[in-house]
Amino acid sequence: PPPRPTADLPPRGGACRGPCRGGWRRRLREDAESRAKEAQEATTRLEVERRAKYEAEARAKIEAEEAEKRNRALQESLETERKGKQEAEARAKIEAKARETVAADTRAAVQAELETNMEKRAEIEGKAQAKAYMVAKAKAEEDEEEKMRADQARRAKEMAEVLRSKAEASAPDGDAEAPRTKKHSGGRRGGAGLAKSLGIGAALVLIGAVALVHVVPMRTLAVKVEQALSKWLHDDVSIASATFRLWPSPHLRVENVAVGKLLDAKASVGKVFLDLPTIFGDRLSVNELEFEGVTISNDAVKRIPTWGNPEGKGEIGSVNQITLRNVKMDVKPNLDSFNANLLFDRKGELRSANLNAATWTLVMKPVPDKGIELDLDLRNWVLPAAAHIPISRASLKGTWSGNQIVVPEFEANTMDGKVSGTLKVTWGTGVRLESDLAIAKVSAKELIAAFTKDIAITGRLDGNFQVASEGANAETLLKAPRAQGKFRIAEGTLSNVDLVAVMQSDAAGQRAGVTKFAELTGEYSGAENRSAYRNVVLQGGVLRGNASLEVGQSSALSGRATLEIRSQVAQDRGSFNVTGTVARPIIRRGG
Fold first, then answer.
1. pLDDT of res. 175
2. pLDDT at 171
């Protein structure tokens, strides 16, 4: 409060007289009222401030609650949208899969119907062709027989003329020498001349007979051979023409041999070695067969197990060997033309089969209660897959039993290194391949180049991988294999990026370059045009890096990497995002 006024106060030790006394009291009252008013105002002001503070706190609390509520509502909305999106995507995938399934089923049904119609049409056309072929063959045989009879008559006439001229030429000599013979030798020279003439005639007849045997068609014998081979192969066999040959050993030379109702397995020429005493009997015995220019269609390939069925073969004859040359099979993937040598026992069961082509050799030997032992040797062969991997030499030994082939161990030389492992192939409704591979010292440059030209990696590759692949048939088996395993590449380079420069400048993450390394290790998995590289570790000089990368469609690259440089003059460490493509990676610091 302000200082009290002193004008009206009574002097010290004296009494206030007159108006002084009333003014002092009034001043005291005014001072008290002023102080009370000021206290009231202060109290009011404090109350107002307190209320304002409470109101501000309440508003802040309400606003915070409302903000939290709005945030929670937003999160719930986003979560609902996310779940809705996921459900929509799931429904879309299910619907797409259902559509694909329906489309696949529809395509399969249509394809089956088309194949059925094509098979029926092919069977009808084949029967018509076979009928026309048989009619044409019968007419050709009649014409050939007429021509043969005319040739036989002409040659017989010519031979008779030759013999008659020979006899007439020798008769005068005998008459002129008769007196002298009687005088000197008693008629022996006349007998010698006649014997000579008869010998010459017999030789000419024999030569003519042999010549006729080589050109005269043997239709009756060809029919017997057709019947015997049809029973032996459990399939129709037709022979267009046949002649008998004595050199180098007696056999029947056949041309245009066809097997099957549709004539879908053919041989241009062949030899049928017969048991000669059975030619004139009811039961013909065939010992050996040789065919050249063999073509087998895709449908005929499926009947090979039927041809090899030993049931009833022992009753027909004793075919102990079949030799096939220049065999071409209409199969996918394409198979090189090959020669085959098949050996059979007296019951018609296969003893061994030896197949030889320019790039492979296969030996098959049936083993009782085990199946068929396989010994396959490959040389300068290319793997029939999307990645054309060259195989300089490979050796596989396994067993074929039922609907599977098991190779417990194989070895191969490829791309300056070695590959070994196991192999299993099974088939039924489809074909499946499974293999465990161990790779040693393979050229990483050649292997990577077989898959892509977008990047080059040098060095020597070691690793262990598991490979599996499935397909509807052998042609599609290796279209989309799946693989996973661990790898190590020693003393090599990585193209398209310089990681040391990336550590020094952000702009270097978009420039091409080369990174040298002493060792690159990691884990690989790949399927359906996608691949992933996990736990990748790169070490080289002052550089060390770790990364996890994925390669998607069109070689799209994504992932993260951690790089570190350690040297005596500088140390740096950073995390990087990897994007772009394999051919043009983009590496940016961050994360």
1. 46
2. 52
